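Structure tokens please, single chain.
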Amino acid sequence: MTDTLTTLYPDPSSNYVWRPPVSDNHADEAVAELEEAVKQANELRSRIDIDSVHEDLKFYLRADPAGGHLQSAKSDRNNRDKLHHATTGIQYTGKSIGAAKVVLDEADPEAVVQRGRDLRQSADDIANSISEYRVSDAGRDLAYLYAIERRLMFARLESHQGGIFTGGTADADEYDAHDIAGTWGSHLQAKQYIRTARHYRDQYQSNLGSQPASHRSRIRNALDDFLAEIEKYPTRGEMRTTVEEELDDDDRSPYGVARWELYMLCFDNDFRVFENSLDRDLLALRAVGTGDAFLKRRAYDFVLSELDVDPDDTGYDSSRSFRAKRRAMRQFRTTTDEYDSNFAGVVASEAASLIRGGDVGLEMGDGPLWRERVDSSVYSLVAEGMLRNLGEVVDPLT
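Here you go.
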């Protein structure tokens, strides 16, 4: 019964505490772009004998190239959901177009490579246009800058071969038929990310007023400080060794599951992604990602003290996961009331996502109930720990 109450207890309304609004025009334009791409895919498909196509490419030449996303985008009344379906559907549709071009011998790998370069240049141009990080209201404007850079990061990623960045760019002779199909879809999605980045930039710039000030040094200094604080903690590899030595590979007890889950959540290295050449210049994006990593490490000792799990325990009562979620939600409300800016909402989004994520195992019920309860408690307590210290990331940046 308490497991059900835990899943029914109110969550944050979304994984995102704040996101920029999406205008009617931008959502409609994205749907129109998808509709045009679907028409092109269907026209190309009509010229092909599908039964004669190799299985590797036939998969892409589906009767509905957008995988249902065009219908969803047209029927949805929420602009953000429209944009989501259009952005997802255009990648599927692009793969269908690319595959058809290969089958019809109309694909030029050199042109595909050049299109990737052009997309990266477009993303660079937008990044350069906001590189001074000018703000007139940091709590508002930094949130927009983060949103813009997040779309630029996605666009840069999707501009590469197959939407995968491995540290360089592939030459035309490295593209096979599968690569061309996949990259065609990635490129169409990158174009939509760039259009959305421009849409968010327009909103950001319209809010600036007549005398905004550069915030670049402050963001850079805060980022350096977060990195310095993270260096005080064990590395991910060192912490893994510590947990392995303590547990002797025991992941079949409540205590073992808790320690492993806590290690996985609090000592991730995702923020290191931003240190490569792909995103190195996107300071607002890097500051938020690195700040998240710092908050998770700060939460580690707090969670250990609050979990109250011993090595000899064989079960985990459902009331404990319920109380952990209730505590996390109380802290969420307290913190978001205290820090109510758009940017604080951006920083709080990871904690909101963790609270919501704690219900997944309880709803699915795939494993022993005690395991799902332990996982749920760890997620909730990490979120609570992050929220308790949210100001340590928000204040230096704003």
